[in-house]
Design goal:
- It is built from four helices and five strands.
- It is α/β, with parallel strands linked by helices.
- The protein has one domain (8-154): 3-Layer(aba) Sandwich (Rossmann fold).
- A five-stranded mixed β-sheet has the order 2-1-3-5-4.
- Helix 1 links the parallel strand 1 and strand 2 (39-44).
C-alpha cells in the first residue's frame, strides 16, 4: 500500500464479445452515472497486469469480472483482496492472458495494492463468441450494481 492514495476506482473487466465474459463491462457502464464524486469508473478488456496501472494512486479499488467456479450462473462472489487471496480457479475461463487473481497477487508481492481492494466475480454461463449476456448473468447485473453502490457508502468500509 502506498502513502498518499486517494479516491476510489471501479474497474469493470471483460470482453463484451465473449458473451458472459462482458459482465464486468456491463456493470461498469451501469454504474458510471450513479457513482458519487471522487469515484472513477473505467472499463478494461486487456490483460490483468494493466490493473496495477489502473488502480495506481487510488485508496480504494473495486473490480468486477466474470468467473467460472462451478457455482450457479449469476452467483455473485465478493472477495476482500487485501485480506485474502482470490482463488485462482475462479478465473480459469477468463479470456485475459493474465488473470485478475494473478494481477492481485503480483500487486501484493510488489506492495502495490490499494489500501482497500474488493473483487466481485459474477458467475458466468456462456463464454462463447457473441454479444449479450445469458439470462442468468443479466439477472445478476442489477444486484451487482447495488452491491457496488453499497460498497461505496462509508459504513460499508469495515465490512469484510
Amino acid at each position: 500500500m502506498t502513502a498518499g492514495q486517494t479516491g476510489t476506482v471501479i474497474i469493470g473487466i471483460g470482453n463484451e464479445y465473449r458473451r458472459d465474459d462482458g459482465v464486468g463491462i456491463v456493470v461498469a457502464r451501469r454504474l458510471s452515472a450513479r457513482v458519487p464524486a471522487g469515484v472513477t469508473v473505467m472499463e478494461k478488456s486487456d490483460e490483468g497486469a494493466s490493473l496495477l496501472e489502473a488502480w495506481k494512486g487510488a485508496a480504494s479499488a473495486i473490480l468486477v469480472d466474470a468467473v467460472a467456479s462451478g457455482a450457479a450462473p449469476g452467483t455473485i462472489h465478493r472477495f476482500d483482496a487485501v485480506v485474502c487471496s482470490i482463488p485462482q480457479g475462479f478465473f480459469r475461463y477468463s479470456t485475459h492472458a493474465f488473470s485478475v487473481a494473478e494481477a492481485v497477487e503480483l500487486a501484493r508481492s510488489l506492495n502495490q495494492l490499494p489500501a482497500r481492494l474488493m473483487v466481485y466475480g459474477i458467475e458466468g454461463q456462456d463464454f462463447s463468441s457473441g454479444i449479450g449476456l445469458s439470462a442468468a448473468v443479466e439477472g445478476a447485473v442489477a444486484s451487482a450494481v447495488r452491491q457496488v453502490i453499497d460498497e461505496l457508502s462509508p459504513t460499508s468500509a469495515d465490512i469484510g
